[in-house]
Design a protein that fits this description.
Number of helices: 8
Low-confidence stretches: 6-26, 137-141
Strand content: 5-15%
Radius of gyration: 20 Å
Oligomer: single chain
Distance between the termini: 47 Å
């Protein structure tokens, strides 16, 4: 999935020739590949500090990161991808319940690399978008024009 997106956008051509012998070839000049490399090489606390413009993580954020290591067995690269995703989706708020819910899913899937984590999160994000679109379409079909007019008159 991530490979498809990278190919579509010339600025993010990360993967060339896919998997060969269990390795992935990266075009290190792209922004996305540099981000993956950064997430894979930084400790979870250092990455969070970097995301906070070098501000020290709060005690509750430190506890959350520690729990992701200890309770879910996630490594730094996976935690960094998870934290990055959660901050992006949650307006720079690191909500413990949101993060741990996703962390449990990642642990159940036995995901252990930064790239696999990003693919998993992107894949599930697209599933949720499709589900919301389907639900909204179904609701539109349920209310007829006459029923809508009747409701508006009641107001």
């Amino acid at each position: 999935l991530l490979k498809e997106l990278c190919i579509k956008d010339k600025n993010y051509q990360v993967l060339r020739n896919g998997f060969k012998g269990g390795t992935i070839a990266f075009d290190t000049s792209s922004k996305l590949s540099r981000k993956i490399e950064l997430m894979s090489s930084y400790s979870a606390l250092d990455y969070l500090k970097l995301k906070q413009k070098n501000g020290a993580p709060s005690p509750s954020d430190i506890k959350l990161i520690t729990d992701l290591f200890e309770e879910y067995g996630l490594n730094s690269g996976v935690i960094n991808a998870l934290v990055d995703y959660c901050l992006e989706k949650n307006n720079n708020i690191l909500s413990r319940s949101y993060v741990t819910k996703i962390a449990a899913s990642i642990a159940r899937e036995n995901i252990s690399t930064t790239l696999d984590t990003m693919n998993y999160l992107l894949k599930n994000q697209n599933k949720r978008k499709n589900k919301v679109t389907t639900t909204q379409t179904e609701v539109k079909d349920v209310i007829s024009d006459k029923e809508l007019d009747d409701l508006l008159e009641d107001l």
